[in-house]
């Protein structure tokens, strides 16, 4: 059987991004993002802003030619539908989703893909939490259910992450891109929930 020898890139990316992924998990809990409809909608808005920028960047960089599971991994449309499902909850829009038309190099594509795929960790727990708010794959939690189902694509994404040929400079850009992508989520969550904290009681 054909066997691919892993480059160790996934392990290095996992190690380098661990503090950033841990901060995101802490934010989910500290801000009770999945414990009330209002906070969940804020989470959706911040997540949409992050994913729209990153996903469109990968799209214009032709990630679909590299990763056949891309259509099952992107979440922009599901997030938009989830937000529409909670249209009756009036939450101030603090971060605007912005699309990009600027392609990036291959190393940045791979690092960003790793970051997006790594956000799948814990998604089943998040889906269980919002189910208590009355949301599921038909209403309000489409993106979470899609993420749960895309777990089967992880081996395909991991293979791409591992075997894509890089030189030393590429490896550094790949790691930086992964950290920057996770940082975009952290920035938008902090912006949304700190804005709430500053509002008068």
Report on this model:
With 201 residues, this protein is mostly helical. The chain has one domain (32-195): Up-down Bundle (Heme Oxygenase, Chain A). The protein has helices spanning 9-30, 37-60, 70-73, 76-85, 106-118, 123-131, 142-149, 154-163, 168-198. The chain is globular. The N and C termini lie far apart (64 Å). The model is unreliable at 1-6 (pLDDT under 50).
SSE layout:
Blueprint: H1 9-30, H2 37-60, H3 70-73, H4 76-85, H5 106-118, H6 123-131, H7 142-149, H8 154-163, H9 168-198
Helix pairs in contact: 1-5, 1-9, 2-4, 2-5, 2-9, 5-8, 5-9, 6-7
Task: Name its key features.
about 200 residues; mainly alpha; Heme Oxygenase, Chain A; 9 helices; about 0% strand; disordered N terminus
Summarize the structure.
The protein is an all-alpha fold and 201 residues long. It is built from nine helices and no strands.
> Could you report the average pLDDT, rounded to the nearest whole number?
91
- What is the H level of CATH, i.e. the homologous superfamily? Heme oxygenase-like
CATH topology title: Heme Oxygenase, Chain A
- Which CATH top level class fits? Mainly Alpha
